[in-house]
């Protein structure tokens, strides 16, 4: 390692990284640093290595460097008042847990804990009035820190959560780099009257079905989908505002399936398809999505990010679609009413022939599509729908055939204020291809910049 590399690494340790309590008030941080110094001084005046460790801790707590000397002086002359003051500031569980993990990390830095260090650690566990479950969590996680073993850390945290320990999940990576806690949910069906609320980031390992009268609450949580996993809401209630839907590298199903829902609104959700799976498929629903984002979603046949069919109403406002794709139709979205040819088979997605004919009503406003691509219809493919497209942008969308950005068939199509930039269709088509529809005012519909081979084509 070069001198510059060493300097950069030390700078990162001392300046870039901060202790989770670096934003507490100054009195708290000073008292905390003195408590840390008590361990370093338990055998007398600290060694040069121990003083360097205290210097680092002082920097991480965002205290002046000169406070190191004061902390050592107070620790060496510690009286009952010093201990009482420390216990007073360490009143919250998270303060107690982090303090003990800081002490254990320091004590085991040389892979051994001396007799006096062990004694002070046990005394602090008693003085902080930690119960058995809390002590078990702290000692277990300190072992994960010692081994730098994330799997051990996950098992320790899971056990602590089951014992109702208030584990500070979002901050444990300070002690164990790359530690991210995920709960796990296997295949299950929520029946009428059953409710399930996620409190932690969760890995789904099988289909979770939400039946009519049941409820699944994902609000604000991150959910990851493994092989053969998806969420299927069939007439039930879904709460997903602020949720993050993430496909793992072995995911192989559309992440979210919505069926037979009379009304649903989702705000500020994010879907990441890892370029292998679709985000959402919908059948017989009325859905509104506001400020949602869809990134790197994919489907082989239809709708890389969204497949919406056999339904009456779909509203999207301020949604963002980036780098979605399909080998078939609609790089980002495929919209189809029940008259679409592929919908007429008896078993397609639960649709039974002879049912009520539905023409989708789509309202899209303030949305954006960037680098969406497919074999046909780079961004949107819409079949048997009534469409209002307003103030929506399409950038660098591409297709081999059909519209570089948009294709419609048997649709009523209106729009205004849209922009198309650098959209290209490879084979003899246009940016927007309209089959069976006519725009009343092409000028107000949108602006086209560096698009080819032409802007709008009527068929």
Write the layout of secondary structure elements.
Layout: H1 3-16, H2 26-40, H3 48-60, H4 67-76, H5 80-89, H6 93-107, H7 115-127, H8 132-147, H9 150-162, E1 183-185, E2 188-190, E3 195-197, E4 202-204, E5 208-211, E6 215-217, E7 222-225, E8 231-234, E9 237-239, E10 244-247, E11 256-267, E12 270-272, E13 280-290, E14 293-295, E15 298-299, E16 306-309, E17 313-317, E18 320-322, E19 325-329, E20 333-336, E21 360-365, E22 368-370, E23 373-376, E24 380-383, E25 385-390, E26 393-395, E27 398-401, E28 403-409, E29 412-416, E30 418-421, E31 424-425, E32 430-435, H10 442-445, E33 446-449, E34 456-458
Parallel strand pairs: 1-4, 2-5, 3-6, 4-7, 5-8, 6-9, 7-10, 8-11, 10-12, 11-13, 12-14, 13-16, 13-17, 14-18, 15-19, 16-20, 17-21, 18-22, 19-23, 20-24, 21-25, 22-26, 23-27, 24-28, 25-29, 26-30, 27-31, 28-32, 30-33, 32-34
Helix pairs in contact: 2-3, 2-4, 2-5, 2-6, 6-7, 6-8, 8-9
Task: Write a brief structural summary.
The chain has about 450 residues and is an alpha/beta fold. It is elongated and about 90 Å long.
